[in-house]
Amino acid sequence: MGMNILVAHGGGPTAVINSSLQGVVEAARDSGKADKIYAARFGAEGILKGDLIDLTQVPASTIQKLAHTPASAIGSCRRKLTDADYPTVIETLKQYGINCFFYNGGNDSMDTCNKVSKLAQKEGLDLRVIGIPKTMDNDLDVTDHCPGFGSAARYAAESACELALDASALPIHVVVLELMGRNAGWVTAASALAARATNCEVLTYLPEVLIDEDRMLADIEKAWAKGRGVLVAVSEGLCGLDGKSLASTGLVDGFGHAIPGGVGQHVTDILIRRLNIKSRAEKPGLLGRASIPYLSRVDREEAYAVGRKAVEAALSGETDRMVAIEAHRGEKYSFDLFLTPLSQVANVEKKFPLEWIVNGNRIDDKFFDYAMPLMMDKMPDYAILR
Amino acid sequence: MGMNILVAHGGGPTAVINSSLQGVVEAARDSGKADKIYAARFGAEGILKGDLIDLTQVPASTIQKLAHTPASAIGSCRRKLTDADYPTVIETLKQYGINCFFYNGGNDSMDTCNKVSKLAQKEGLDLRVIGIPKTMDNDLDVTDHCPGFGSAARYAAESACELALDASALPIHVVVLELMGRNAGWVTAASALAARATNCEVLTYLPEVLIDEDRMLADIEKAWAKGRGVLVAVSEGLCGLDGKSLASTGLVDGFGHAIPGGVGQHVTDILIRRLNIKSRAEKPGLLGRASIPYLSRVDREEAYAVGRKAVEAALSGETDRMVAIEAHRGEKYSFDLFLTPLSQVANVEKKFPLEWIVNGNRIDDKFFDYAMPLMMDKMPDYAILR
C-alpha cells in the first residue's frame, strides 16, 4: 500500500515554481512509493473546496514542459487561512487519504504548513508535512536564498543593463525602472549590475532606506549633468521619510498587505515637474517573476532539487520541516540542501543587509558576490563603441 | 585608393540595430575597399558636430559582441534635421572625405537620407547614400517588414503569454499590458499569441481602432466573469472616440511627435473605479525594444544581412536606395533583399491592416501567418495542468 501525496502552491508564482512541481512529481514517481499524486487547484482554495487535480497519470512529457512554463501550472491563491479554515483542510486531507503534504510558498505559506501539521497531529492523522521554499523576494530566513530569486534577480539585472544601454545611447530622458519587492530590496539591488556592465549612471533605491525626495532629486540631477544617460531603479515599496509609500494605491491584498503602485511614475513625475528633466518610467511588474527567457539556470536546478528533496524527506519519515539551501560560492558554484523546522521560517522576513547599501543609492560588491552565481553564469559583455 | 564610409543611427534603437552595424562593418572589411569606417556619435548630432567615431581599427571580437548588445553602440538621437542643417552635414562629409553614407532608421531617417543625397548631388560630391531599415514599429513601406520588428513582436507575444499564465494561475486581478507603437499596432497585435498559447481570456487593443470605453469595459467585464483570468493588451497610442489619446502626457518629442503615456494605468484605473474589478497595469516600455533574451533569431539574421547588403550595394555603385526585405513564408521561412528608391519610403507610414482586427479586440490568424516566422521558430508549448 503506497502513499498519497498532495502538493499545493501559495502566493505569487515565480519563473521556477513549476520546476519545483516537476521535482515533486518526478521524485514521487521515481520512488515507486506513491499511489496517487494530487495537486490542489488554486492552492488553499482548492484544498478548502476539496478540489484536487489528479496528476498520477499525466504523461512524463507534459511534466517535463513544467521546466519552461511560468506562473503556476496548478494555480495558486493569496487566501490566508484562518483558524476557522483548518478543520476543512483536515477534512480534505482525510477525504483523499493524503499521507504527505507539500506546500510550496513563502513565509506566510510556511506558517500555514506549520499549523496544518500541528492540527493533523492533534487529530491523530499519519501526515508528513514538508515546506518547499519559493519567493522571488528572497525574504525567507535560514535558507541561503529562495528558489525564484535567482531568476527575478537576473530579470532585474539584465533588464536594467538593457535599459541603461538604451538610456545612454539616446540620452533624451532619465529612465526610471520600477521593480517588485514590497519590503525587501533583494531583487531591486540586482539592477545595480547596470552600474558595472554599462557606462550609464545608475542609481538604485531599495525599500530598506526611507527616501528623502529632495536628496534623491539632487542626486539624479547631478548624475544627469554628466550627460551619459541615467537609469534610476526603484523598488515598488519605496517609502518617504514619513514611512508612507511614495505612491500608494490604498488597496490591500488577501493577506492584508498594502498594494503599492506607481512609485516609478511618481519619480518620473517629480523629475519633470520639479527639475524639468524629461523622464519616463518603465514597470515590467509581474513579468519580473514570469519571464522564461530571463530564467536563471542555477535557479531552475535548485527549484527542481528542493521539490525532489521534499518528497524524499517525507518518504523517509521527516515532517514539520522546510527544505533549505546551503550555497558554496567557490570558483564553481554548488549547493547542498538541508531541512529546517517550519517554526523557524514561518512569518519571519529576511531583510536586505543595510551595510550593502552605499550612500543610499549604490549597492556594494558584496551583494554581487552573493547574488551573481544565483542569477547568471557570467557577466554580460556588451560592445559599447561611443 | 579606397572608400571612406560613414554609418549613423536615427531614432529609437531596437534589439538588433547593432547587428546591422556589425553587418556594415564586417562587409566593409571583407570588401577590402574601405579605407576608413566611421560612425556618427549620437546620429545626426554627431554628423552636425563633425564628431565621428573611427571604427576602422576596432577588434573583430568587439564587433562580434554587437550581436548581443542592445540599444545603439554608437549612439542615436531624435533630432530631425531642418533645411538649415543640411549644409553642415555636407561639410562633415567633405571634411572626412566620405564616399558612402549609410543611415539606419525609420521613415523619418529615410527622408533625411534622401535630402542628404539630393544636396550632395547638387554640390557635386561623389557620395553614395543607402538607407538601412530599422523600426520596431514595423511601419516602413515597401519592405515586407522591418528589422527590429521580429524581436519586439516576440517580446510582446511571449511576455503576453507569460502574463496571461500568471493572470490565470492567480486570477485575483485583470492584468493590463501596455506595449509600444504609437500609431501602428504591429507590435501590440503580437500579444494576441497569448489567446492561442494559454487558456486565459485575452483582449487586444490596437491604435488603429478608436476606443469606446464603455464597450471596452463591457467586454472586459464579460471576459472576467468567465473566471479564467484576463489579460488586456493595449497599445500606448490608444485614442478615444474623440481621437484624443486615452492618457496623454502633453509632451512632444524632438520630431514633434506627441509622447503618449499611461494608457495601461488608465485602463486599470477605470476597471477599479467603474467596475470595482481589481486590476494592475504593467508597462515594460523600452524593454520591449532592448531585450536580448527575447531577441528573434530571424530578426537578428535579417538585421545583419541588410547592413551587409547596404555596403555591397554602395560599393557596387548604387545610391538613393533603401535595402528592403522580400519574405518567403514556405514550410521553412527564408528571405531575399532588394533595393527600393528612398523617395518611396521617406515619410510613408504603413498601418496595420484593419481587416486583421476582429470585433475590435481580437487578432486574425492572418497576422500570425505573417508574423510568426519573424518572431519565433515555434509556438510556445506550456504545461497547464488546471
What does this 3D model show about the protein?
2 copies of one chain form a homodimer. By secondary structure, chain A is α/β, with parallel strands linked by helices. Chain A has 2 domains: 3-147 and 295-345, Rossmann fold; 152-292 and 351-375, Rossmann fold (3-Layer(aba) Sandwich). Helices cover 38% and strands 21% of the residues of chain A. The first copy, chain A, has helices at 17-31, 44-49, 60-65, 86-95, 107-122, 149-169, 186-190, 193-197, 213-225, 263-275, 287-290, 297-315, 342-345, 365-375; strands spanning 3-9, 34-40, 52-54, 100-105, 128-133, 174-179, 201-205, 230-235, 248-252, 258-260, 279-282, 321-329, 333-341, 357-358, 362-363. A 7-stranded mixed β-sheet of chain A has the order 3-2-1-4-5-12-13, with helices on both faces. Chain A has a 4-stranded parallel β-sheet with strand order 7-8-6-11, sandwiched between helices. In chain A, strand 9 and strand 10 (258-260) form a beta hairpin. In chain A, helix 1 (17-31) runs parallel beside helix 12 and helix 4 packs across helix 5. The longest helix of chain A is centred in the middle third of the chain and has 21 residues, at 149-169. Chain A is elongated. Chain A starts with a strand and ends in an 11-residue tail after the last helix. The model of chain A has no long low-confidence stretch (mean pLDDT 94). Chains A and B meet through helix 3, helix 6, strand 11 and helix 11 of A and helix 3, helix 6, strand 11 and helix 11 of B.
